[in-house]
Amino acid sequence: MVRWEAFFITTKQITLVELAQNGDEDAFYQLIEQEQHKLYRMAYVYVQNENDAVEVFQQTIIRAYEGLPQLKEPHYFSTWLTRIIINCCKTYIAKSNIVHLVEPHTLEDVKSTSSSYIEEELDLWQALCQLEEKYKTVLLLRFYQDCSVKQIASILQCPEGTVKTHIRRGLQTLRQQLKGAYLDEWVQSAEGSH
After folding, report:
1. Which DSSP state fits 110?
2. 1-102 is classed in which CATH architecture?
3. Residue scoring higher pLDDT (182 or 50)
């Protein structure tokens, strides 16, 4: 899983944000370089196509560059950038009528993974893809990007209680669709980490 260390932005990163806000393009590119893997991965999960993910990534960078002077709190740069890419993905999907998500095993190096584990992951992923957008988004951020409830609330600009409700309801829907120990383990990890 990807860790979101960028949520805990350093003094150096805050300085880079402030420099970028004042027109320093090199500072902006340094910030994007630190975030690019996370951003591309999120785009790829939504659009399931390398070319489309690159296009969404580029749109995100343009929007971020144009909007950076209006960012009021530099320490929220990573959260703000994640919100932009999610919105760009949703806009791109709506315009393109794309509703596919990529399977999780294509996002990581699968070396010595058993075929039953991959089948379980694919079943879980297919069920996740069928969820309503609000549930899908919070579960993607929680389990595939390892965000806390607080971080998700910040990204989506909604109360933590709403995020918890969407996680709980999304997991309930998954429970109805799937049976098996792998889902129970996944659910327990979610519910234990509020």
Report:
1. -
2. Orthogonal Bundle (1.10)
3. 50
